[in-house]
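Fold this sequence, please.
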Amino acid sequence: MDGQFLLTNKTAVTLYEEYAKDMPIIDYHCHLSPKEIYENKQFANITEAWLYGDHYKWRLMRANGIEEAYITGNADDYEKFLAWAKTVPMTIGNPLYNWTHLELQRFFGVKEILNEESAPAIWEKVNEQLTSGQMGARDLIQNSNVKVVCTTDDPADSLGYHQKLLQEGDFEVKVVPGFRPDKGLEINRSGFAGWVGKLAEAAQITIDSYDSFLGALESRIDFFHETGGRVSDHALDQVMFAETTKEEAAGIFAKALKGERVSLEEEAKYKTFTLTFLGEQYAKRGWVMQYHMHAHRNNNKYMFERLGPDTGYDSMNDEPLAKPLVGLLDALNHAGNLPKTVLYSLNPKDNYTIASVTGSFQGGGVPGKIQFGTAWWFNDQKDGMLDQMKALANLGLFSQFIGMLTDSRSFLSYTRHEYFRRLVCDLIGSWVEQGEVPNDMDLLGGIVKGICYENAAAYFDFGLQEEGGGVLAAAKPNSAQ
């Protein structure tokens, strides 16, 4: 993993070193804790920073025969680190092999390969740095050249730590909330009525009807907006669409509020009306709407009952996508309420479906208004990233792509942007080497800078537009230097 890691030709090396390497990061979707950012959390050791909550690593440790005590159980942190060190050599071919060593190199200057033999010395070297007082959560973010962190937050959340960060005003990185109303959409999940009560309390609105429920959601959207929020996100594990009316949706909501089970058709109607209402609110405020689609969650009921969600027991879903997705987007677009939208699928079978659907709803003078989002979760590895980018390039404008996000709970995950950027440069470099595009560094360098940072700076309303106007600005003479 030297300077030419993942760069297979001279053009790729030039593009990475001169245009991609030093670009800032906009992390427009992640699961970092605003509390830990505000408090500048200090880590006791590398296990706490690296393995706590990282279900990517947990899955591989289980596959390597590591007992659960050394993953999520009561073993001490050093024993858990040794269990991961034992697993790392077996991860060759998996992106975690590269990510592990990139993080050791970039954050801690550790060039050795992690294994059982090197683990004790690496444990000491890394922990000495982590406990120095200079590698807290804020330091790790700033040292990664991050401009914006967009967390994932429930509509009923107080956003207390976001407000404290705003009031404090001395952290150079913008930390903004992301509106994630999944609990208000999953009408058949246990706890729905209880969550509606929490929403009512947060919005200070009595929710006794569907109208008051929608009013509470709108109130919280305004609150998020006042706190810097400009992005929403929806986990649509199964994308649904059904023609309906507000009256029908209201009846279904009332039924669920009483704790009654609603049918699949009723669920589709309720979700359709609620999602189109939310999309209208986002469009009014200039927000970006994100759909994360086709996850199949909590597959292992036994382990879900022991450990809860997000512990490494999820997979891809393979429900139909094109018809319901087009239905949702078309309903919003027909009413003049389609916001800027980013679409992701956990199943790569959907790549060409999404890439083609985005082209049906572009317009309004917004470059790349509907985005095919970066390869996500099980796909954010070399082949998955390249497959997503090639599908986008084949059917749309790769040059207007808003690029990478971390989607992570770890403050050490920012090296994934380097991994992604190297692949972007290698893909474009290979087109040059094969004679498919001209060796025009002003053009190509501007495109690379756009994908790495400037397109996202222009796309999201985070107040960064003055720092980059997207690929068209970046491609002007001398602007890529």
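The CA atoms of residues 108 and 125 lie 8 Å apart. Confidence is low (pLDDT under 50) at residues 467-481.
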